[in-house]
Amino acid sequence: MSASVSARGPVATYAHRGSSGMAPENTAAAFERAIAEGADCIETDVQLSADGELVIIHDVTLPRTTDARLAFADRAPWNVHDFTLAELRKLDAGGWYDDDFTGQHILTFDELLDLLGDRVGLNLELKSPAANPGLAHTVAARLRRRRDRPRPLIVGSFDEQALRDFHAQLPDVPVALIAYDVPASGKLTDLAEWVFSVNPDIRRLRAEDVARVIEAGMAVVPWTADSPELWRWAIDAGAEGMITNYPYALTTMLHGRDPLPGAVGVVVQDVVPHSPGDEPQWAGEHVVLRNVSGQPVDVSGWYLRSQSSERIAVGDGYVIPAGGLLRVWTGPGTDGPTSYHNGRTTAVWNGTKGDSAGLHRADGAIADLYAYVV
Known about the structure:
Radius of gyration: 21 Å
Strand content: 15-25%
Largest sheet: 9 strands, mixed
Number of domains: 2
Number of helices: 10
Distance between the termini: 33 Å
């Protein structure tokens, strides 16, 4: 367990879909990296294939994190539950993230359990039960047959009924209610009779909400926290754990060390997302990088990742002078000494709720972590 403590005890690191800031989400590569980075728990998602197999994937559709559009061009909208396990196994689930991860595949639940073993805990989300009828029952039945469960094991969902269905079948397994907002105090009192933790959106979380959950007798484990500032705030508020794309940085900070050992003086000063209704939607969207060091820094080959793992190049050949800045634009435009354009025609940064930006050096090391709330 991690070394820092909240009001309730040691603070745990939950690796969001694995170490998804460093490897493609919900793949063996991301899970193995999270374990190596010292995560206490793997947070991941489970759904059902067309033939009833439990598979590990977040989105209810396949295109964002696989090559389904190419492999099955005539199967739009590529719903996970419309594909058999055999078909899902044909998909590449890593190349979208980086060519180095080409060949990663969608795991089954059993493959995940085998991979984790007793090395790390598991926080399993029952994903979109409405699109996956029978999901809670199937997961409970599979876990009942498996005696080699990860420890700790927690099962969560946004869907309270699905969570109740699961809890009725396996009452010995702690459950977590995932939410955007912390429920009203009266509701918390009812939930505390059978729910272990509330996992709220950190972008909408207030310190008084954390206090209400703790007073009701449950833990608070917010998602998705991706900056040292948010981590420190959540610890001070009393969070018992945090779900993050960057488990190494969080675990390092919890043990009293520098969470950003790859920092060389260039930081994310601001993220300017698109505003809803902007046309074109990428208009105005950019990230401001500032060199706060006393010497020039070559940022050739550097890149940014959003919370959903979209990659934005910083641009080759750019050297930011001491005190200078570079604006990294999402859309097309004319490059200049202090501006680089990615040429994309869709927005990347979340302009309705907030987002996080991981700044990576060319060697992949994390140079800065930044988060904002809209």
